[in-house]
Hints:
This protein is 7% helix and 47% strand. By secondary structure, the chain is mainly β. Strands 16, 17, 18, 19, 20, 21, 22 and 23 form an 8-stranded antiparallel beta sheet that branches. Strands 2-8-7-4-5 form a 5-stranded mixed beta sheet. A hairpin with a 2-residue loop joins strand 11 (147-155) and strand 12.
Amino acid sequence: MPRLLTPFENIVSLQDVDTLEWEQVTTESSFLLEIVIERTVVLSSTVFFPPNERRVSLHQLSSVLLPYVENALGLDDGFDAWMPVEVRTDGVVHRALVVPTTVRLGESVVEFTARNFLSLLSGHKRTPEGETERISVYCHEDETHDLIVSTLWEYSGRYETETVAIIPNKFIEGRTFWNFDLDPRTFSAPHPLARLVQYEVRFGKRSQVYCVVPRLDGEATTFAFVNSFGQVDKFHAFGLMTEEHKYTRSVALFDDGLRTYNVEASPELEVNTGLLEVGEKSLLEDLLRSRYVYVDGEAVVITEASHKPTSSIYAREDASISYQFANGSQVRVNKPARLFDTTFDTSFE
């Protein structure tokens, strides 16, 4: 009976289990391997140890699991994409919850989720005034915390702070996964004319700071996307936005000469991010990797992006993102001609 050497328990990432390795502990030269997702066997094979070798590896397991993970991704409950997976070797069962990230975290998923919200954002994040932000949490068994929000307000040149437990632990206890939408408009201001400058969200060792950008500084473009953990995340671009319309005209020869029978307009938008905060760079990269991106609730396709990270943590960087709306990006003017309809050119007869 072989022994699985790759850690496969609790929660693991797709990246962590891309390669599984076994060690031969008996004289058996082979074993039966089964991969099971939600009681469905997705892989069943006999694995043989190489001659004169006591170890064998299975590579690119993520390519087997990824289609099942992607089927559960979307803007609904992102935790549906956390797949319960079993690895069975000659009847010995190893169980784990597989997180849909292929990003190298530099530590185990258990360690990362104990210290971070489910986002690659680190440090401060700029957020437009009044914008709702979502935080997603994986709670470990021994955690008992309140969700704390500390706000910083400015009024007449003076600054005041307020701290409140917006979700006491008694409402969180026993829940493994949860999402919470933070709406700054619900925060209690110390004065009717006070302006929210920033706020910090804390849950146990996890912390995230949001710096509020006044609407007077210009309208931001907000990209909602499914991040590397299968959760809904947001990235805000505060730079200039330009829109370019590209027209494709379809022309054919009719009885009365050339005629345009169809026009397709393909608007493409380009937005600059503005100067990025240090912690926003990894969030931007996560956005550019995502296959599910939305603007104003509409699905978009990122057609091009330019971001050149530097090795200096002090260098200020920006990026540009070009995108098109997935539905309705082409505006049809006139009905397209069809073969043998009333507009068909019969002059050759």
